[in-house]
Structure formats: structure tokens, C-alpha cells
Here is the input.
Amino acid sequence: MKIAVLSGKGGTGKTTVSVNLAKAMGWSYIDCDVEEPNGFIFLKPNISKKMDVSILVPKIDEQKCIHCNKCVDICQFNALAGTNNGVLFFEKLCHGCGACTLICPVGAIEEVDRVIGKIEVGEDENISCMRGILNIGEPMATPIIKQLKKLNKEEDTIIDCSPGSSCTVVSAIEKIDYAVLVTEPTEFGLHDLKIAIQLMRQMNIPFGVIINRGDHKKDLIDRYCEGENINILGKIPFDKKVAVLYSKGKLLIDDLVYERKFKEIGQKIWEVGSCN
Ligand code: SF4
Ligand code: SF4
Here is the structure.
């Protein structure tokens, strides 16, 4: 089963939930939060493989170019600009779609690799782990996420998504079986949770909610989920022990109480997700 862990907003504890669930259940872990992958801080796997991720971008042969500007006109991302001195290429804007190469009437464009980041593969005791790292200043994360998902051969996997509900998240949750939405009992948390829920419903993905920093009392997230008939998978309390373990880069499941809690949550996900 492929399970994505998302949060409408940053700082809700998405990575904490992802790494602890993966370890507690023995599921493999993929960090698709490629702009800020921090799951390995807690899992500390032995890295066995590193590989670059590239996209294909155009390289224009000035000798062949007849300055027709057809490539400039077709580029939907403004990555090419026609000037008196030839065509200028802005590599960071290029999405590697290949349209300019196809349209060039004289074959003046060839496609070359441009490295945008890398992937690391490793093992942490009982689980396999992967993470993508987008190079600083690179705007396009989705090719790395797609490559990560393609490389993953494990059946049961936790996919740690980036926060929000942008195209990077959409790319990470394509073809998953179940989604875990991590939120916190604040107005901001609820606001962004609603956006994440909308995305799940649009993409027809079954999901449940984990409330981080919640307590035993009913909060605004409980009430909202009750009204919407949304499954609450569990709560992680506002506990100093959690903050201490987190600040030391340790897993919460190092504590027996939390190990039991994450196993219970994992079991629930397994049961609900398998029924869909
Ligand atoms: S590959 Fe696509 S995005 Fe890149 S320059 Fe060509 S047309 Fe524009
Ligand atoms: S389409 Fe080809 S020939 Fe025309 S401007 Fe672009 S590179 Fe030059």
C-alpha cells in the first residue's frame, strides 16, 4: 500500500508522523519534500547509492539558427527570448517539454541534460529509505519526485510530501492508495486542512486525519471532522517529551508509549486503506 503523508501547512509535524509510522510499521520511506528533505535527520540511514536527476533542455546551434523565433513563440514558460543577437535561453524557466526542439524548422536545437538535483538511497535497520534533494535555486521539483516514485520497488511505502497543496504535492500523491493529513488544532491548521481535504476529494483519494499537539478534549478539528464524517486516525499530544526527542533528532517511537501509538495508527491506516 502506498500511503502519502501531507499537511496543509508547514510545521504541523508531517515528517514526525511519516518517519515514526514508517519505522513503527516497517514500511519503506520516501522523502518527497525535496526542497527541504529532513526525514533522514531522524532515520539516519546508511546511504548506499546517490544519483543525479536531470531534465532535458534545449541547446541552440547559432550557426544553424535562422532566427525565425518559432521556438520563442511556442515556449509556454517564457524560457526563450528572441533578440537581435539570436535566441536567449533562461534555463531556470525551462520545463524541459521539448516543444522548441520539435518546432525548429532547421534542426538547430538539440536536447542536453541539465542536473537539477539528486536522489539518495539507503537502509535504516528494517526499512529502505530514499530522498530527493532539489539543488538550491532550482524551481522545478516534480521531475525528482517522479523519479523517486519510479525507483521505489517496495510494496508498502510512506511518501512524505511537501507542505501545502501545490503541484509538487499533486505529483507525490498520484497513484497512492491512502492519504494521511496531519494538522494541528488551530484556525490556521483547520483552514489549510480544508484545502488539503478538497484536493483529496477532487483526486478521489481515501484519507484520514492525525491531529498533532492535540489533547483529550474535543477541539475545532474534531468538530469539523465529525461534521464532515472524516476519520480521525489519532492524536499526538502537546507533550514536552515529544519536543525533547524531536530537538535531539530522535524518533518518538524510541519511547514505548509512542511506539504503541504509532503502531495503532499504522494498523488503523492498514485496515481502512485496505478496504478501499
Ligand atoms: S523545452 Fe519547453 S520549456 Fe524549455 S525552452 Fe523549450 S519550449 Fe520552453
Ligand atoms: S526555431 Fe530554430 S531556427 Fe527558429 S529561432 Fe528557434 S532555434 Fe532558431
Summary: The mean pLDDT is 94.
